[in-house]
From TrEMBL:
The lineage of its organism: Eukaryota, Fungi, Dikarya, Ascomycota, Saccharomycotina. This is LAFE_0G18514g1_1. InterPro entries: AB_hydrolase_fold (IPR029058), Hydrolase_4 (IPR022742). Residues 106-204 form the Serine aminopeptidase S33 domain. One of its GO terms (cellular component) is membrane.
């Protein structure tokens, strides 16, 4: 009788574990891409709230998904920043920084919503976000204004993985890359954020393997790595490794001792480091 009860318990526990793992596998995109959180799909601030001129672009990807973008041009600029956002919120959350870039750096800015974010259609996935990037780069490549501009990629967290993808695949369009608190790949972040999932991290199908991708970027393309040493989501060692793997002849890493994942951008000296990098290499 006791043996039978133990067997029933173990079988039940195994069934729950298997069901949980299947659920985790199927719904992992909700964790990796929390575009649904905090009502970020219901309202998106627009650049006119910051007195910025803009045109809203509706771009169609090659798999038929419409994505939204803010095209914020300065007619007197010679540099455009392409903003690659992190995985939370929407592009409206980043407009205060867009204003700083536009005014302080006298630059044009192009910022877009990944599929499934803000008012863009579709659902987010690694392959889908790469289609989005391809679509945006095609637009910029053929636009008479942007194709005459220098292009700086600026990616934070997940946006850094996007920036590395673009840098590898469109080197002829890029003049500088700025990465903040990005990761080697998502599977290597999981044990840090969700320790109890470390043994099933291999089941994560959203990989974003920047650790491999960055090895193949153009060595003439300048890179700036901005790392918060107190980052509680992406271990700072990830940024150090990406820096070491990057083959760029013109690369710098700046570390902020008190920077966490989401507040490195407000650390003292952050924008001075960006300015120095751009003046030196772009």
């Amino acid at each position: 009788m006791l043996v039978r009860l133990v067997r029933m318990f173990l079988e039940g526990a195994a069934g729950v574990a298997v069901t949980s793992l299947i659920g985790l596998y199927v719904y992992q995109n909700k964790l990796v891409y929390p575009s649904w959180a905090q009502g970020a799909r219901d309202h998106v601030d627009t650049p006119d709230n910051y007195n910025l001129p803009y045109v809203e672009r509706r771009l169609m990807t090659k798999d038929g998904v419409e994505i939204r973008a803010f095209d914020i041009r300065r007619e007197d600029s010679n540099t455009t920043w392409l903003i690659l956002c992190p995985n939370a919120g929407n592009i409206g959350y980043f407009l205060s920084v867009v204003e700083l870039i536009y005014r302080q750096f006298n630059s044009s800015v192009f910022i877009y919503s990944y599929r499934g974010y803000g008012f863009s259609q579709g659902s987010p996935s690694e392959s889908g976000l790469k289609y989005d990037a391809d679509c945006v780069m095609s637009f910029l490549q053929h636009d008479s204004f942007y194709k005459s501009q220098k292009m700086v990629l600026y990616g934070r967290s997940l946006g850094g993985a996007n920036a590395i993808y673009i840098a590898r695949n469109y080197p002829q369009m890029c003049d500088g890359v700025i990465l903040e608190n990005t990761f080697l790949n998502i599977r290597k972040v999981i044990p840090h954020v969700f320790p109890w999932l470390r043994y099933v991290a291999f089941m994560c199908h959203e990989v974003w393997d920047s650790e491999e991708e960055i090895k193949f970027v153009d060595p003439t393309l300048p890179f700036l790595f901005l790392s918060g040493k107190k980052d509680e989501i992406v271990p700072p060692e990830h940024m150090e490794t990406l820096f070491n793997l990057c083959p760029s002849d013109n690369k710098e890493i700046i570390e902020f001792e008190n920077g966490y994942h989401n507040d490195t951008i407000v650390q003292e000296g952050y924008w001075d480091a960006v300015s120095n990098f751009l003046n030196k290499y772009v």
